[in-house]
Each structure stands twice: as C-alpha cells, then as structure tokens.
C-alpha cells in the first residue's frame, strides 16, 4: 500500500473536498468583510475597507476586546501553571490514584460547556459572589487546563531524564535542578500551552455568557451584535481580524511545540 | 488524542494498600494544586447542581426542603413535560446523527493522512485543526449565511440553473444544526481515529495481504477492527458535548431545531427557575452518561465476540 504514493485518486479527491468543506465558512469571512453592502448575502457589491475603519470607531468593541485580553492572559497563565503541576506529576511520579485524578482534571474536555457554565454560576450565586471578569477567568482556567496538560505532558514525558539526574549528581538540589534544567527543556511546551490557553479563552463564549457581569468579553459582544443586521458587516471585519490573530497565535504555538519536540527528541502530534 | 499521551501503564493494585512512599508523596503534592482547583470549581459545583435540583425556587430565594417536584415536572407533568421530553429526545437524536455523520466523514480523511500522506502528515493535521481555532460563534453564523434563503448555496444553485426557487429546507431546522455541528466537531473525530490508525502494526496488514485478503477484505477484517478504539473515542468525544450545544441550535436551528441547552439557559435566565434548570441538566447528563456506558459496553461485547 505504501507503494502507491498519494493513495487512490478517489481518496485524495475526498480529502481535498473535505478540506473545502472545513474551510468554506472561513473563506467567506474576508469576502463579506470587504464587501460593500449592508447585507451579508450574494451577489457581492464592491470592494470596501469601510467595515474595518468602522471598527476603530466602535468604543464598545474596544472595551470588549480589552476585557477579553485580560481574561485570556489571566486564564492562560493560571491554567499553564496548574498544567505544569499536573503534567509533571503525572509524567514523573507514580502515585496512588494517578489515573482517576488526572482523568477527573481532564473531564472538562468532554463535559458540555453549558454544564460547566451552569454549575459555576450556581456556586458563585450561592456564595454571593458578584459576577465579573474574574469569574469568567475561573471558568476558563477549568477548560484550558486539560489542553495545557495535554501539551505539557508530552513535553515532560519526552524529556531526557538523564539530564536531570546528571544535574543532581553534579550537586544541584531538586528545586534548582527543576528551575535550571527541567524548565528550560520544557520551555517551548510552556509557551505552546500559554498560546493555546490564550486562544481558547479568547474564543470561548458559553462560559463567558453565563459568568460575565456588566463587562462583556469579545465573543459575548459579538453575540449581542449578531442580532442586528446593520452590525453584521462590522462583525465580519472583526471576525477577520480575530482569524488573523488566531492564525498568528497558533502558528507560534506550533513553532514552539515543534521546537519542544526537537529539543526533547520526539515527534508527537499536534495535541 | 491527547489523553493517550498522558497515560502510562496502570499501577499494580497493591499500591493502593501500601502507605504512599516518598515518590508517591511528591507526586501527590505536585498534582494537588490542580486537583484541588478541579475539586473546588468542578466537583463541588456539580454536586451543588444535583442538590439544587431537589430544591424549589421561591421567588428570589431557594426553598431547601427536599423534593422530587422538579423531576416530576421534567418527566411526568402532563402540561410541561411533553416539551422537555421533546427537547431531550431531539437533542439526543441530533447529537446521534451528528456523531454518525462526523465519524463517517472523518474516517476516510484520517485513513488518508495515516496511510497515504508520507512527508507532510503534520501539515495535514495542522490544516485540519486550523478552522477549529477560529471563532466558534462566527463559524456557526457563517453556516447561516451559507444555508440561508439568499445564502451562498441557494445563490450558487440558482446561478447554475439547478433550481428556480431558493431551497427553504436548508436553514432553521434540525438539518442545519446537524450540518453545522458536524463541521464544528470534525477535528475532534479525525484526530483520535488518526492516532488509532497510525498505531496499527503495518506487518499485520502485510500478513493479511500475504494470506490472500484483497484490499476490501483486509480493511474490513484487519484495519477497521484495529482502529475501533479511535472510532469509539471519536464518537464519545463528539456525542457528549454536542448534546449540550447552545449556540448552534439558537443561531441556525429555528424553533424546530432548539435543543435542551436552550431550555436550560432559559430556566437559569429569564424563567429564573434554577432548580428546574438543574433538574434538566442532571437528567440530560444521566441520559448521556447511560448512553455512553451502554455504547462502551456493547462495543466491548461486540469486539470480544469478534476476537
């Protein structure tokens, strides 16, 4: 079978057709963002950059963007720190209950987000917390941590343990060994984890929708705009910018993940 | 996909009985911040949701006397329960369809990348995952643009002369929800199947060929059974979260495509009846868990019978 490079023609055609299906909505985004028409439909009218110019003048959007950036930074940093603890523990140590504990931490990966959102909302309301950007951060950390662990686990698992042993043999303590040998070795994994956490938090809607107070995050703002037909061209332009930002972040994450893989000598998959 | 990397062979059972040694203590200490976070912000909240589902809303306060009234409303009440049961059934049916469609569509592409792409595997996987990282809300909204009355699909079909009138069955119904969700969850189905396929020992495939199996028989008797763990994982990863999807039914589902999550949101929001919302959430979770376990059990029986 490996003799037939590229596989049978129909399979290759299917794969390309599938990619078209996957990318169809993404391709439409720039088309409508630059289209000179108040409605999002074909036929196209003409080329304009007015939708982008309008974005600079929309104060509410700037506020939402600032909120989202704050939340995304906080959530990605906290979830990466928590991810480092869990990934290191699971990769390096054997302890009772390892699998159920890690499995439980990974649970938000498969739970419907609305359940996570509702559960957190109920607790926060019962405890008398007022909803704010911090409550959104609490929720986002919960869903970003599993992704951090996935990225960091492979970094820790693939690291050459003998380097740590050498450091300890040469007289460094455990803490210094971790700081001076282990951390630099998994640093690309940590950067990848930060970038992925940031991207997930920036895009997350349901949890933010339930847990945000008076300050909307960007997806919550977009949701409020989707109701008004007149606002849609602007939303398309905003979507374009977000798309570029996500691509840049993911390109960077992928670069660091590969560097991490090269440094630690593995060739693991994307997640 | 990711879980597989984090898992090592399980510890022998005896370890549970022994006091944790130095290594184990260090591991536990190290995992504890993350574990505590998950306990406080996931286990405790989920427990509270279960508790609240047995309470009642009394205007602005909660009446904490234990009652099954909410579950009775959800499942037995002659006036209200038909709506909830309809939404629950529809959510399960839509998710089931989405799961089947997503896995069937994903399998060939996972197969293609695993067996027929040689140098650019990572690039293909990257290309497959990129759309997933773009704004979920906008992706769903753009499906509305594609499927709408004046949408991309209708304009294209009319432009090419296939139809005279725009098709109306595309948007604002369950079909639209299925298409949109099958698109949104594609990478989650492709990756686990890809991992399972790439783990298959190629010599087994050669052996099947040497023993006279044609390509189809070899696929049916060797490749497919060996990739079943990936298929099962993909099915569960798609099925469980899509039952609770809120955005897609709301944007493209119309009134005939609304799902249980929309009702849960209404109960926690406008209707201000958190206990009923909690009972709906718990019911949905229990049904999903039961179906998932049944699915796993059937698969285990089926694969044991086959081997």
Word description of this protein:
The complex is a heterodimer of chains A (271) and B (307). With 271 residues, chain A is mainly α. Chain A has 11 helices and no strands. Chain A has a single domain, classed as MetI-like fold. Helices cover 74% and strands 0% of the residues of chain A. In chain A, helix 3 runs antiparallel to helix 8. The radius of gyration of chain A is 22 Å and the shape is globular. Chain B is an all-alpha fold and 307 residues long. Chain B has a single domain, classed as MetI-like (MetI-like fold, Orthogonal Bundle), CATH 1.10.3720. Chain B contains 14 helices and 2 strands; from the N terminus they run ααββαααααααααααα. In chain B, a hairpin with a 2-residue loop joins strand 1 and strand 2. The N terminus of chain B is likely disordered. Chains A and B meet through helix 1, helix 3, helix 4, helix 5 and helix 6 of A and helix 1, helix 2, helix 4, helix 5 and helix 6 of B.
CATH class term of chain A: Mainly Alpha
Structural class estimated from helices and strands of chain A: mainly alpha
* Biggest interchain interface, per-side counts: A-B, 102 and 98 residues
By helix and strand content of chain B, what is the structural category?
Answer: mainly alpha
Number of domains of chain B: 1
- CATH fold title of chain B: MetI-like fold
Report the CATH superfamily of chain A: MetI-like
DSSP strand tally of chain A: 0
């Amino acid at each position: 079978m490996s003799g037939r490079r590229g596989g049978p023609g129909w399979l290759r055609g299917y794969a390309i057709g599938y990619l078209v299906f996957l990318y169809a909505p993404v391709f439409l985004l720039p088309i409508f963002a630059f289209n000179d028409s108040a409605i999002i439909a074909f036929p196209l009218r003409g080329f304009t950059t007015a939708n982008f110019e309008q974005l600079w003048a929309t104060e509410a959007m700037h506020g939402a963007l600032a909120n989202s950036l704050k939340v995304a930074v906080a959530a990605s940093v906290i979830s990466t720190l928590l991810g480092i603890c869990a990934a290191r523990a699971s990769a390096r140590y054997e302890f009772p209950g390892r699998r159920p504990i890690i499995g439980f931490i990974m649970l938000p990966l498969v739970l419907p987000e609305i359940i996570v959102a509702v559960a957190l909302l109920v607790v926060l309301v019962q405890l008398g917390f007022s909803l704010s950007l911090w409550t959104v951060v609490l929720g986002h950390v919960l869903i970003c941590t599993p992704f951090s662990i996935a990225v960091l686990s492979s970094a820790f698992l693939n690291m050459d343990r003998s380097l740590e042993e050498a450091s300890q043999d040469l007289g460094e303590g455990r803490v210094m060994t971790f700081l001076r040998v282990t951390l630099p070795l998994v640093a690309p994994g940590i950067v990848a984890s930060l970038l992925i956490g940031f991207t997930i938090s920036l895009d997350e809607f349901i949890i933010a929708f339930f847990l945000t107070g008076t300050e909307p995050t960007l997806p919550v703002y977009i949701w409020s705009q989707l109701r008004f037909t007149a606002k849609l061209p602007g939303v398309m332009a905003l979507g374009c910018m977000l798309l570029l930002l996500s691509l840049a972040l993911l390109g960077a994450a992928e670069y660091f993940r590969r560097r991490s893989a090269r440094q630690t000598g593995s060739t693991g998959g994307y997640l | 996909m990711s879980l597989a990397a984090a898992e090592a062979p399980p510890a022998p059972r005896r370890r549970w009985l022994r006091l944790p040694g130095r290594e184990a203590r260090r591991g536990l200490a190290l995992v504890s911040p993350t574990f505590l976070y998950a306990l406080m912000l996931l286990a405790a909240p989920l427990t509270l949701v279960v508790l609240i589902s047995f309470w009642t809303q009394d205007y602005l306060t909660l009446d904490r006397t234990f009652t099954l009234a909410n579950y009775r409303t959800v499942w037995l009440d002659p006036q209200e329960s038909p709506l909830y049961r309809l939404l629950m059934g529809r959510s399960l049916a839509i998710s089931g369809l989405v799961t089947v469609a997503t896995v069937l569509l994903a399998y060939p592409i996972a197969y293609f990348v695993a067996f027929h792409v040689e140098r650019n595997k990572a690039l293909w996987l990257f290309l497959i995952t990129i759309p997933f990282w773009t704004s979920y809300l906008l992706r769903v909204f753009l499906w509305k643009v594609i499927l709408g009355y004046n949408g991309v699909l209708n304009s294209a079909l009319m432009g090419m002369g296939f139809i005279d009138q725009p098709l109306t069955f595309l948007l604002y119904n369950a079909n639209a929800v299925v298409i949109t969700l099958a698109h949104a969850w594609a990478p989650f189905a492709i990756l686990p199947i890809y991992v399972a396929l790439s783990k298959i020992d190629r010599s087994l495939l050669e052996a099947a060929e040497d023993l006279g199996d044609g390509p189809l028989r070899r696929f049916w008797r060797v490749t497919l059974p060996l990739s079943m763990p990936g298929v099962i994982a993909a099915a569960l990863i798609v099925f469980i979260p899509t039952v609770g999807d809120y955005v897609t039914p709301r944007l493209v589902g119309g009134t005939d495509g609304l799902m249980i999550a929309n009702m849960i949101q209404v109960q926690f929001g406008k209707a201000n009846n958190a206990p009923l919302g909690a009972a709906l959430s718990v019911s949905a979770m229990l049904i999903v868990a039961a179906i998932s376990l049944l699915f796993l059990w059937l698969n285990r029986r089926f694969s044991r019978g086959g081997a």
